[in-house]
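Fill-in record for 3-oxoacyl-[acyl-carrier-protein] synthase 1.
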Amino acid sequence: MKKVVVTGYGIISCIGNSKNEVINSLKLGKSGISQNKEYSDMGFRSQISGSINLDLENLIDRKLLRFMSHAAAYGYLASVDAISMAGLDENILSSPKTGMVAGSGGASPRSQIIASDVTRDKSPKRIGPYAVTKTMGSTVSAILGTALKIK
């Protein structure tokens, strides 16, 4: 059995969204933790977070983004960067010999709350088909496998 190591990485974080941004933040001792107005508006006692600053609509095609939770979108962007850095092309990715392992800490709470609110306030029939991929626990691996054509 042959083993392959992808020597690339992607970073989406509160201190930067690229190798250079993160390195600069680390060198400067920059913290990505700050007061979160959204938490304040909701009345949370703890109002700090490490928020990610990205305009997903300008970075990911609309037709693909509609299936993604924020976690899946961040995973997708990081994966695209890692694949590019490793010099892999679509032929390698779509090969039956190529596999993928992707993990996440769980489904997207934001997407689950939105789907729950629509169910409660309107009807389960009003949730829409895109809510399924956004709320399932395997959203990151499902999106990556489909979007990157990994079998």
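KEY FINDING: The mean pLDDT is 90.
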